[in-house]
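pasting for ref
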Amino acid sequence: MTYPVAASDYRPVVNSTATGLIFERTIKGLRQLYSLDLTNPKAVPSLLIKGWNEESARPDWSWQTGELVYMNNNGIYLFNTPKTVLSNTKKMSYPTWYPDGTTLAVYNNRVHSPALPIPRTSTIDLTGKVLDPLLGNKATWAGFPSVNQVSPNLIAFAGQVVRTGGTYNQNTNYIWLLDTSTTPHTVKTLSPNAPKSHFDPNFQGRAPWYSPDGKWIAFESNRFNASGLYSIFIQIADGSQTAVRVTDPGWNANHAKWYPNGTELVVTVLQKKGAAPNSNRGIASLDVSAFVA
């Protein structure tokens, strides 16, 4: 893909047939969604929501219904009804589809009750109604979620232990696993050895995403990198094996999502390897078949 000089691309997601790509493109400080036809090697990205000079960001595509969901500072939107925000979803973000195509897991920063942690992971329907305000537990701040599309009772999220007097900090997250089929819900770290009493940077992780078969989790981490640059890691979804790094930290890779074949990832990387961490970004595909075979 050819990038305009002033453009930086982020948070890509592929549709169920791997024929289309949606991603954020930031130009002059405004984030908007762009689409790309993956069947045409000569295709160029086009603005998805034309004539709307407002932010659109953090998309997710339902592989069951084909519906696209996204958000901005006003809340969460469905693409089929652009400009119509779901009720009471302000301060909710990272909407993520359940396989039923009718419910979403969200990063929830709204005050629902003083007893609930902020942020947390919640479930909402397509009107914005909160079906479950707290998917995890009161001891954990929960960020970016991903729903296992084979076993939707399993949710991975980036989060951390609630600490008295502290605040949520995405840079000190671990990857956590949540099982909503138990009472109470089971919450544990993906890496069993990650200490809960303090943050260990050797287990840091953000933006987890389940593979289509539910057996793997891809995520971003700056572990083992003194400069703080991010790499994409892959780990078996039950946490029984150590995570494997699959990108060079020089690319400062983020936000991995799976292709439907389960052997490729779409990621955002620096447009030039080794550039400054805040330099413009682009979209790349990554073959990880050697790691998930």
